[in-house]
Each structure stands twice: as structure tokens, then as C-alpha cells.
Amino acid sequence: MADDDNKTLNYKMKLLLDIGQAMMENGADCARVIRDMKRAAVHLRIPAENIQSHITYTTLMLSVCDDERSFTQFRKCMKHGVNLAVLAAVSKLTWRILRGNTSIRPIERAIARIRERPLCYPDWVIVLGAAIGSGGSCKLFGGSWFEALIATIAAFAGFISYRLSTQNAFNPYACAMITGFVATLCAWIIPTVLGLPIMWYALVACTIFLMPGFPSVNAASDMLNRFTTSGMTRAMDTMLIIGGLTFGIAFAILIAGVHNISDVHIQPTDTYLNQAVAAALAAGGFSVMFNTPKKLLAVVALEGIVTMLIRNVIMLEFGLPQAIGSFVAAAVVGMEPGGGARRARRAGRRRAFLAQRGTSGTRGGEATRGTHVFPVSQRYRCGPGSAPRDACHLCAASPPPYSTPRAEFRDAAPVAGMRG
Question: Looking at the whole model, is its pTM more than 0.90?
Fold first, then answer.
């Protein structure tokens, strides 16, 4: 850092804010934003003790100082959504630049490409995914397959109204109200036109795609990680979305003349096979809506089935409330696959590194790569979350120029072992 002139240092700060903005605008919590910015700062040779950051829901502020200079930049983040493909791409990019000797310009171009990349799915597939997810939820709540079909059609109409509202720059809470009204009214009109009784489970499930799950989870995460300002803002945003959605549903119910929707009992009553199919549809449909990478859809569907099985066993076999069953199922599925996925990614990175470097192995106290010999003299962290070890015992090659010794890495990137 001391070797950087003022222009270079400001440019590095801009790069860090680009990473933070990409994460914040696409559904990352504050801890993850800070983690990825610190990873990049290690590569850019900005010591952790020289960085001060402040994050709110709409603003990123970064200050870098040394004994002689002090620079501060901030970035507004006014667009908030959920794009899991962008989060995964930025996280992989920060690991890649942390392990290698990448110059600043390619990093900037890579971030720009990630932020501008198209969605993994066309618009009609996203609409269909949200509708199918709502239909699968209807079946999980205890409805029949016909009620699930009604919920799917109603959610399809509701999501289209949501898209049209957002494209015309309506207030986001008004968009939630319009969506709730349209979806609920459709779920009532369709059975009425067909001369059928009210489909209660379709009325309950047709707006499930708009429930603010990610904002509520991020609000809790920020509060627990002591990002209080951002957590409170996210929590308030969540409550306003739910309030707008509730107002739209209530208005539609008032027009339809339905008075006892709150008496619907949500309890799985079908066979485990039907529930498994519904869970896979719900999990896969909502994953499409959140732009989950295509290669992960099968994994998400399988995790949805496992979650459903755990919840139903706890509810039906042990007689515990639905809240406890859902909590236990989500906790088990949320914790178990993470370690395995990280271990698989880590092994893949090691194999790719060895293949790229042309490693031939180690020899006594030296590591060999091709015809070159590198002394093993310092202890490094050679991979994400790996324990300190002598340089090249893992990679069988000398650490890249931007790798950092054990003590410096610990100080510069204290959260390097987290997910991603």
C-alpha cells in the first residue's frame, strides 16, 4: 500500500466498492459483503488494519488510511434483489484472485461482466418457476393436485402483474399489494367460474412466491453479526412488503366475500411420494426465480425433498408443531450439505491448480514444478479454509506472489474460512 500513489489507491478502493455493490444489490448479507471485500483487499496489498468499512442497506462506505494519507469513498446501493448466480460468481472470483497473481484490470473487467451477465433463465421460465413453486407449496400445505393447479395459474397471473408493476417503476410495496390482490382474486374466480367450491389451499398458497424470505433471513443475519442498522432496515423492509401483500389479499377477500380463510389448517395429509414430488417442484421453481445456476437445480430439488421428509416425520410421527418441524428440517439441511460442498469445491480447486501448474511432486525439503525447484521455508494457507502448512506441501509449488504468510493472512482476512 505504501508503494501506491494516490490515483492507484483510489482505483483499488473503487474496485473493492464494485465488489461490495455487486454483492449487496443481489441479496448478500453484510458479513458476506465484508468477507469478499477483505479477500480482494488482501490481493491488492491493502492491510486489514488500514481499512475501515461501514455498511448500511443502501450505502457502502470505505476508508483507507496510512501514516500519511487518508481516503474515503462511498457507494449507493438502491437496487435490491436476489441473484444467486451473481453471488456465487463474485465469491469464486475473490477466491481466484486471492490465490493467484492477477492484475487489477482483468479483475475490474471480470466484475463488470458478472454484474452485466444475463439471467440464467428467460423471463417466461422464471414466471413459470414462480408459479410451479407456489403450486408445489399448495400441495405441501395439504391441498389436492387440482388445488395445486389452481394455485399455479393464480400465481402465474400474480407474478405477471408483479413484473408489469416493477417495470413501470411502481412503489415496491404497492407492487406487493397489486400482486397479492391479483393472485388471490384469480384463485377465487377460477373455481367460481367452473362451478366448484372455494379452493382454500389455493387461496393460501397463490402468493407464497412473494413472501420476503431472503430479506428476513438477511435481517436476522445482520442483527446477529452486529450490523444493527442494516438489519433493522431489512427487517422494516420485510414488514412493509408483508403489509402491502396482506392489504392486497384482504382487499381481494373482501370483494370475493370470503370470511374464514384464517381457519385453513395447514397439515400434510398425502403420501410421502406425493409430498416428495411437490417438494421438488416447490424447491426447483423458487430456485429458478432466484436465478440459481442450472447445474444446482437437481441438488436444490433433492434438498427440498429431504427437508420435507424431516418436517413431516417430526410433525406426523412425533406430533410436534409445524414450526418446530420446519425449523429442525431447515437447520439440518442448511448445515449438512455445506461442508460437503465446500470440501468438493476445495478438492476441485486443488486438482485444477496442480493440473495448471504442471506439478511433479515434492523432493525432500523442496517442491518441484517441472524443472524448477522451490525451497520450502515459510508457512502459508494455500486454500480456502485450509490449515497453515509449509509452502507447497498442498500445492507442490511455491506460493503465488500475492499469497500471504500465516500471521498476515489471519490479520488481513479473518473470515477466510466461511462459506462460498
Answer: no
